[in-house]
Design brief:
This protein has 114 residues and is mainly alpha-helical. The protein has one domain. 69% of the residues lie in helices and 8% in strands. The protein has four helices and two strands; from the N terminus they run αββααα. It has a two-stranded antiparallel sheet. The longest helix is centred in the N-terminal third of the chain and has 27 residues. The chain is elongated. The termini are far apart.
Length: 114
C-alpha cells in the first residue's frame, strides 16, 4: 500500500508528473546541492578554502534520499551507482570527524604521529 502511495501522481509541475518518490528525489537533490552553498559561505566567511562538517552532513542526507529514489522510485542502476559510491566517502568523512573530535570541547583533534 505504501509503495502505491509513493507512485501516485500528486500534481503536475511543468507537464511532469510529481510522485512521492520524485519528491524524495527532489529533496535529496536540493540537499546535495545546498552543500555547495554551505561550503561557499564558509570559505567566504573564513577567507580561506574550507569544508565545514555541514557539507558532509548534507552530502550524506542528500545521498541517502537520492539513493532511495533511484532504488525504489525509479529502479535506475546508473543512478544507484552514481549515488552509492560517493555516499561512502561522505559517510567516512563524517565517521572520521566524529572519531577524532575532542568530546569535552567538541573541537576536532589533529591526528598524532604524522
Amino acid at each position: 500500500m505504501d509503495q502505491i502511495l509513493f507512485h501516485l501522481n500528486f500534481f503536475h509541475l511543468f507537464k511532469v508528473a510529481v510522485t512521492g518518490w520524485k519528491l524524495v528525489g527532489f529533496l535529496g537533490t536540493a540537499l546535495f546541492t545546498a552543500r555547495w552553498f554551505v561550503q561557499f559561505y564558509a570559505t567566504k566567511k573564513l577567507k580561506r578554502v574550507t569544508v565545514p562538517m555541514m557539507f558532509w552532513y548534507l552530502s550524506v542526507t542528500g545521498s541517502v534520499l537520492t539513493l532511495a529514489y533511484f532504488i525504489w522510485g525509479k529502479n535506475d542502476s546508473v543512478g544507484i551507482i552514481q549515488t552509492a559510491f560517493p555516499m561512502f566517502v561522505s559517510f567516512y568523512n563524517v565517521y572520521a570527524h566524529l572519531r577524532h573530535r575532542d568530546l569535552s570541547t567538541g573541537e576536532h583533534e589533529e591526528p598524532r604521529g604524522s
